[in-house]
C-alpha cells in the first residue's frame, strides 16, 4: 500500500493560534485541499492523516471538540468521494515526551502496525511545519513542505497544497 500521509491543521484545514482554537466549531478547508486530496487518491495512494493535537492535553480544546471538527472534516471529504484510510493523532502536551508527537515517529509506527502492507519507500508526507518535514527526513521518505524550507534532499518545498497536484503523479510510485 502506497500512502500519502497528510498533516491536518494548516495543510488540509485552516490552522489558528492555539488560543483561537478554543472557539473553533467547524473546519475551514484550505483552498485547493479537497481537489488535491482527490488527485492524490486518483494516483493510487491511500490517504492517512497524522496530526499533532497537543491542544487537547494543553487544555485549549476538549477531546469532544477535536472529534466534532474531525468528523465534520471527514464528512465533507466523503461527500467529495475522498476516502481517508485513517486519522492518527497525538493528544499529548508538547512537554510530555511521548513517542507520537511529530517529528517523533510514533504515529507512523501506529500506521505500520495497523497496516503492515504500507510501503514507506513508496509513500510520502505532506505538511506545513518543520515537524512534518523533519518526520519525513527521520523516516527517509519523500516529504513535501508547504512554505517550509529544509535542506534535506528528500524534502521538496511547495507554496500551496495545490502545488502537490503538479509534482505527484502515477510515475512517482
TrEMBL record:
Protein's UniProt keywords contain Chaperone: no
Family the entry assigns: Belongs to the gmhB family.
Organism whose genome encodes this protein: Geomicrobium sediminis
InterPro entries: HAD-like_sf (IPR036412), HAD-SF_hydro_IIIA (IPR006549), HAD_sf (IPR023214), Heptose_bisP_phosphatase (IPR004446), Histidinol-phos (IPR006543), PNK3P (IPR013954)
Main location: cytoplasm
Pfam families on file: PNK3P
Compartmental location: Cytoplasm
Quaternary state and interactors: Monomer.
Enzyme Commission number(s): 3.1.3.-
Cross-referenced SUPFAM superfamilies: HAD-like
Top-level division of the source organism's lineage: Bacteria
Record keywords: Carbohydrate metabolism, Cytoplasm, Hydrolase, Metal-binding
Highest classification ranks of the organism: Bacteria, Bacillati, Bacillota, Bacilli, Bacillales
Cofactor(s) required for function per UniProt: Mg(2+)
Gene Ontology molecular function terms on file: D-glycero-beta-D-manno-heptose 1,7-bisphosphate 7-phosphatase activity
Official protein name in the record: D,D-heptose 1,7-bisphosphate phosphatase
Claim: Hydrolase is one of the keywords in the record: yes
Amino acid at each position: 500500500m502506497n500512502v500519502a500521509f497528510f498533516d491536518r491543521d494548516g495543510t488540509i484545514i485552516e490552522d489558528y493560534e492555539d488560543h483561537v482554537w478554543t472557539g473553533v466549531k467547524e473546519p475551514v478547508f484550505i483552498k485547493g485541499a479537497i481537489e488535491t486530496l482527490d488527485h492524490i487518491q486518483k494516483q493510487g495512494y491511500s490517504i492517512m492523516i497524522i496530526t499533532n493535537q497537543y491542544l487537547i492535553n494543553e487544555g485549549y480544546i476538549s477531546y469532544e471538540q477535536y472529534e466534532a471538527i474531525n468528523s465534520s472534516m471527514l464528512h465533507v471529504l466523503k461527500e467529495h468521494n475522498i476516502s481517508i484510510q485513517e486519522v492518527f493523532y497525538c493528544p499529548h502536551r508538547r512537554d510530555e515526551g511521548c513517542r507520537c508527537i511529530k517529528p517523533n515517529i510514533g504515529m507512523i509506527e501506529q500506521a505500520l502496525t495497523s497496516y503492515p502492507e504500507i510501503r514507506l519507500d513508496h509513500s510520502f508526507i505532506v505538511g506545513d511545519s518543520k515537524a512534518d518535514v523533519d518526520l519525513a527526513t527521520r523516516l527517509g521518505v519523500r516529504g513535501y513542505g508547504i512554505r517550509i524550507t529544509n535542506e534535506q534532499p528528500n524534502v521538496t518545498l511547495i507554496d500551496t497544497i495545490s502545488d502537490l497536484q503538479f509534482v505527484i503523479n502515477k510515475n512517482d510510485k
